[in-house]
Amino acid sequence: MKLKNYWRFLAVFLFLLVSLLILEQTKTLARKDNWPVMLNASRRMEVAMEAVREEKLNRCYKISPIDDPNQTGMIGEPYTEITTTLGNLEAKRSTANPNTAAMVVDMLTQCGAEKGDTVAVNLSSSFPCLNLAVLCALDAMELKGIVINSVGASTYGANLPDFTYLDMEHFLVERQYLSNHSTFFSLGGQDDIGKEMPEETKKAIVSRLSGFGYKFLYYTDLDENIAVRQSIYEAGAEPACFINAGGNLMSFGGGTEMVSAANGIILPGKSPVKGHGLIPLFLNRGVPVIHLLNMKGLLPAYGLPFDPSPIPAAGEGGVYDTWQYHLPLAVGLLLTGLVLLIWAAKKYPHRKIPL
């Protein structure tokens, strides 16, 4: 068939192409349906971080103007007795943004979590702000978290031996800034038992945190450690989601998958997930996972800045917005396109339709 006989179909194609361009040009930003809950979580986190900052100053800890230029009080030291690995300073500073709690609410909503659901949570202490973001999101959504924390932290995390992440958390719970909180803890670090930490430091931390009511987990065998955590998470209702914040050993059982794993929301697939640890375990059980680690890629993907200065206030950022298309216009263009396609097709016998 000669090219001139195709002009009607070319016209339809051009119409559809122009329609797509029109829809893109007329789309608008609108608040997400769950933005009030997202804002609630962000405001909770904002208040919690300020309370931790004040307590840190009350304990005579200095806030570095170089490492923590926004003076959040949420940035740790380059090295202490409970420092486990090297961490990224800019990533730590980036999470000291109250709107990261809104991001976690958005992720939980996408995973289908609803009021009253149970959420399994694995927290390291490398990103104390991420931990607060998770707990504030759970509180705002009225979810029940089953939370396990590891004390060891990478550089610039919650690595002060006398003011660990769980010291911060306990302080906030005591003053009713948090409802959800950790129940169990391990030392973290090498083999999750803090092999690289001084014995006296470990004893002091375990004694203090146990006195707060946290239950201590100590298992030298990795498989047993993972199995115990699994039993803790399975003791209640089936979790609607599993959240892993930071690079805790238990997330992938010490495997290299942690570095290359997908970031943010990971949905269960049809094929079994290879690997050893809590993330593969939950995915293979059909439970969606929220993996919070690579902040440089994750935060901008949710409309939040990386290493911002100054820190945005609660309610600021693209995380609250979504693009919406003009629905009546889209329907009108679609119907017009269908009419034109039928018109073009009728000009040819069925066997000659150039499809």
Automatic annotation (TrEMBL):
Keywords: Membrane, Transmembrane, Transmembrane helix. InterPro entries: PGA_system. The chain crosses the membrane at residues 325-345. This is Poly-gamma-glutamate system protein.
